[in-house]
Amino acid sequence: MKRNSDKFSTMNVKSSLTGRALLVTDRNRASRRTLAEKPKFLEKRSASLQSWTFHNRSSTASDLISRRGVFSRRYYGSVEQLQQPEVDGHEHCRRFRIENGDSPGEKDAMFGSPSTPVLENPECQTRWYFKYFLGKLHQNYIGVDNDKSPFFLSIVLNEDNNSCVPLYRAILFKKTGAHKISLPIPQNKVLTVKQILSNFPNMDKVEKGPKEIFSPDIQKDLLLLEEQEGSVNFKFGVIFMKQGQTSDDEILSNEYGSPNFDQFLTLLGDKIRLKGWDKYRGGLDTKGDMTGKHSRYTVYEGHEIMFHVSTLLPYSRDNRQQVERKRHIGNDIVNIVFIDIESDDQSENVHAQFNPTCIRSQFTHIFAVVSNNAKGDYRFSVFSDEAVPLFGPSLPCPPIFSDPYLFREFLLVKLINGEKATFETPTFARKRERTLEMLIKDLHSEHVTDARITMLNRRAFSDVLADTPRHSRLKEDSRQIEFVRIGQALKLEAIVRGDAPTSLASTGAAGSVFKRSPWEANCFYPVFPSHPVSSGDSWGENKLILATDEGTFVVEDGTSHRQVFDKSLQVRQLNVVEPHGILLLRAGASHKDCKVYVFRLSQLQSQTDVKTRMDVKDYRMERTRGANLYALSRPGGARLRMCVAVGKKLLMFQWKHSAAWTAWCPASDTDTIEGFTFFWELNLSETPTILTILDNVWSPISPTHGDILVCVGYKNHWDVVNGRSGQAQHLYTVDGNRVHLVAALDLYEDQEIQLMLCYNHTCHFQKLNEANNSNTSTSTDFDFHWNSAPTDIVCAFPYVIAFTSNTMEIRLVVNGNLIHTMSMPKLQLITSKTDIFFATTAPEFFPNKADLLHVDTRQQELQKISPPSSPNASPEGKPLRIYRIPIHSLSRSPHQDNNRTNSPPVWKSADSKLTVPEQPRVSRSASSSPVPPVRARMQQASLK
Fold first, then answer.
1. Which of 61, 244, 193 is nearest to 459 (CA)?
2. Confidence label for 63 from pLDDT (cuts 50, 70 and 90)
3. What are the respective helix, strand and coil percentages of the chain, to the nearest 5?
4. What tens digit of pLDDT does each residue of 254-297 get?
5. Position 661 pLDDT exceeds 60
6. CA atoms within 13 A on the CB side of 579
């Protein structure tokens, strides 16, 4: 192997580019067997020192920052131009995004710093084939799309560990990656394969249906395709740097570290002897001490991490470039740079003066700069290549950590998320796509020509069957048994070699078992009748108003719910407007009969009897007869506005008093329907399905502050309507036959309006000033897709949460990365005006006791805070339990100790098989993090 010891910046790999994306350079030599031998690059990375230039590179991350500038500029640092030294006579210019806790959002007291360390796209939730398919009976199909590109489709029905929420899970393997969706099972109907396939983008018009593959060996091939998403293990460089050093030769010539550096290494992981090491080695030699005798190793949330420590790698007194160190550290995507500062007051200046170009490596994309002081506090800043998409967690302000274990967790999560984000850069993404394309074509060719499956079309358009076909029973049973056996063997093999993405083994800070997640929910109301909730809203700190088929109820924490309207008043939409002390209802036996009603909250507070439809005639707004939808302006605005859709007409009303006037003179604001003043009426071309009132800020289509803008969603497109001028501006159109618009959420920053448009499985960002160019390719480049088609969307920065009838999916706003998924039966969002309230079936009444959620059995707690049981609640009725996610825990989660709890969580995701006590008791708190049975037993033992 030829090495160029003079050019550290030209270090690269020849046959493989990264440890998380299989890359092949010679198309003619890329057979499936060759590819299968090298699914992990970090372990077998070549040290070839060929030049890798970045000429004409597209700045995808910068474009993403521009498209989602609403929050990304505030929380994820600036982008500065840094000159790269000349390499081979060419001057390279690299731009870095600098995160140092100094961005406006991190200083903003209103939002606080969203610095909770959570893993993005966690493998335990993204590796669907390993988790939900492998080792279970499922079906696999092969086909060709309209672009003549082959694909594989896998479908599993009603998996065992989630039987309380029956659904289909499907994975579509294409050259662009593995696309995943889950679909609810329709009542008394079984979906065909073609129907399931049509739910994927651009797959609804595939001419030729897919054909089923019966060979059990297909499982190994599909597992290989999924592994191209990346290894579950990581390797990071750790560089010791003295203050004042400015070149990589000086930095890597530090033969030994310092006491502070040694203390930092102890925090990172355990010191291990490399010779004979049988776990993840991260490319280090474990036979002959060729890469040093010792290294640092740790495990975090199931990820094995090997650190390439500069002072532990071989040192040469005669080689000024320290090539043996550069060949490992220079090929690490993420490097930690520990700066040994001379005095504590210089820490901030040292971080500000650090220049990542002093370490010449075109392969390293992220530099995590660390220093500590005499008190043991750690300062942290991050330099990311501009092509790397945004990743969390964002740094707190100031970026100083006094708790070393909290800093360790924050650092490891930041590094893991950073390396994952790097593989989405254009260079890596293109090479991964080429690799997947070759793999899929090779596998397609092999399985189509395999003589063992000449009857591929036998079940080409069959239903996805859960039961064994009656014909050829014995032969089919034998095939299925062998299919499951091979899948289980492949899963066990992956677990043994340490590549199982579902492992939660972890080392590090004590008490991490009891760490609270930001989205952890608390039980608000333990037992509510199993009436379907049509609408609801929060009232004050501890009350809800819920509309059901059986009437409208006031639900208060600590007391029994009480009914205020009977079922003769069919409420379809309601809002509590506390600044004006009113309750708005849209009610009627049908949409043609619906009207908007206005009540005083003070009347409901003192009301003792149940009102009927005849009792509330005086509270209805006759002009709103036939209302099929209404929307309110944002809380806290200058004026309360209400936009009502009556068929194809839009009616705008405004409350005659401002919120400030009501606050000063609350006794004078006693109006109901007379409090609304009619503004204007507009005729639309279609009946709207979504309405969102936009704040009256400046925009190109609203040049005056007095204009009122309304985002209107129809069947397959959105418009922005200016109520004062009557003009409509087209915003965005969704292509396709089956389009379901979900929401249009308005986001604001610096007088700029941006809309989050959600439809089907997709979330699209659209700026108002880009409406004319909405259908260009660039406008959809940064859309993200949900695994399940949502019915409701909640944006609580930095998270956006999608609710379906049985799942809650949490992602990040700035990059769309998956954070967490929870499965709950009969899940329904109630309101997100203040805190997030949702209802689900009480866990004691899940149909399969093997999958019940763990509930608390402490009788004393039950007696103290449980309200009286509802007379309508019974196991047969499967009562609902109402949970609350405090909004401040999502948007203002600091990095201090208040994100931990001394009490163990008692409600866990249904993805984990947790048993229930024989006599279940109501739990008053909930946690959504999946916990395996072993850890659950550990928690129970710790309480004794």
1. 193
2. low
3. 25, 30, 45
4. 888 899 999 999 999 999 999 999 899 888 988 988 888 999 99
5. yes
6. 16
- Provide the CA 214 distance to its chain's centre, in angstroms: 34
List the beta bridge partners of residue 80: 96
Of the candidates 766, 774, 137, 736, the residue with the CA atom closest to the CA atom of residue 480? 137
For CA atoms 45, 51, 56, 59, the dihedral sign is positive
**CA–CA dist 80, 310 (Å, integer):** 28
**Gyration radius from the chain CA atoms:** 30
pLDDT at 522 over 80: yes
The one-letter amino acid code at 705 reads H
Do the beta carbons of residue 229 and residue 177 sit within 8 Å? yes
Cβ(103)–Cβ(883) below 8 Å: no
Please, are residues 477 and 266 in contact by the beta-carbon 8 Å criterion? no
**Residues whose CB is less than 8 angstroms from the CB of residue 863 and which lie 6 or more positions away in sequence, other chains included:** none
Burial per residue of 44-69, b for 16 or more beta-carbon CB atoms within 10 angstroms, e otherwise: ebbbbbeebeeeeeebbbeebbebbb
Cβ contacts of residue 914 below 8 Å, gap of 6+?
Answer: 851, 852, 853, 854, 908, 931, 933, 936
Residue 681, classified by CB atoms within 10 Å of its CB into exposed (0-12), middle (13-18) or buried (19+), is: middle
CA atoms within 13 A on the CB side of 351: 26
Phi-psi region of 440 (alpha: psi -120 to 50; beta: other; left: phi over 0): alpha
Query: Collapsing DSSP states into helix, strand and coil, what is residue 72?
Result: helix
Least confident range from 51-65, 280-294, 629-643, 749-763: namely 51-65
If DSSP codes are grouped into helix, strand and coil, which group holds residue 790?
coil
Q: In sequence order, what E strands does 201-274 have?
A: 211-213, 234-242, 270-273
Residue type, 396: P
- Of 564-573, 883-892, 898-907, the range with the lowest mean pLDDT is 898-907
Whether pLDDT at 888 is above 60 = yes
Q: Is 56 left (phi over 0), alpha (psi -120 to 50) or beta?
A: left
Q: Are strands 533-539 and 728-733 parallel, antiparallel or unpaired?
A: unpaired
By CB atoms closer than 10 A (0-12, 13-18, 19+), residue 167 is: buried
Distance separating the N- and C-terminal Cα atoms of the chain: 61
Element (H, E) at 799: strand 799-803
What stretch of H or E contains 432?
Answer: helix 426-449
Q: Which residue has the higher pLDDT, 886 or 47?
A: 886
Least confident of 91-100, 405-414, 769-778: 769-778
Reported as a pLDDT band with limits 50, 70 and 90, residue 103 is low
- Asked if the model's pLDDT at residue 6 lies above 50, the reply is no
250 CB-side CA count, 13 A: 9
CA distance 853 to 846: 8
Residue 695 CB coordination number (10 Å): 17
Rounded distance between C-alpha atoms, residue 460 and residue 481, angstroms: 22
Which residues are paired to 717 by β-bridges?
Answer: 733
More confident residue, 376 or 867: 376
φ, ψ of residue 22 in degrees (nearest 5)? -75, 120
Mean pLDDT over each residue of the chain, to the nearest integer:
75
334-340 and 366-372: which strand pairing?
parallel
378 or 919, which is more confident?
Answer: 378
Q: In whole angstroms, give the CA distance from residue 524 to residue 926.
A: 10
**Secondary structure class of 545 (helix, strand, coil):** strand
Q: Are the C-beta atoms of 537 and 833 separated by less than 8 Å?
A: yes
Identity of the residue numbered 133: F
Predicted confidence at residue 153, as pLDDT, reads 94
> In angstroms, what CA-CA distances link 68 with 755, 756, 780?
10, 10, 12
Residue whose entry in the numeric block shows the structure tokens 């007194």: 317
**Residue 813's pLDDT band (cuts 50, 70, 90):** confident
Does position 896 have pLDDT exceeding 50, yes or no?
no
